[in-house]
Specification:
disordered N terminus; single chain; about 120 residues; about 65% helix; mainly alpha; Non-ribosomal Peptide Synthetase Peptidyl Carrier Protein, Chain A
Length: about 120
Amino acid sequence: MLLLVADYVMSDAASKTIASVREARLSFQRCEMRQKTFEEYYSELQGLLKLCKYPSVVQEENLIQQIIHGVTDDSLRDLLISLGDIPLHDIVIECRKFYLSPQNSQKVKDVSNNFQSVSFVV
């Protein structure tokens, strides 16, 4: 039996693409809402998701999981988890309702004041 082994040589462009996709995926997975409004956080996640080059069938689920992971409030996180398998649109609506409600808006401001410099949009 003869076994042939060929070395696979990757072009510089291909290796840079792979590296940039890995970096984007790491950035996506580490992205948290700290010191950002929900809209800024959601927009950042959407931009990173495009660079991740995930298959389209898993993009929405990855975005849902990352939103749940990255929100700053434990009660919101618990709520989102308790809602079960709901679409991204509903997750985003729940987050917007939470962060725009007057009582939670003040709570977020109080937490944000613990950071050195925060720009907060209400």
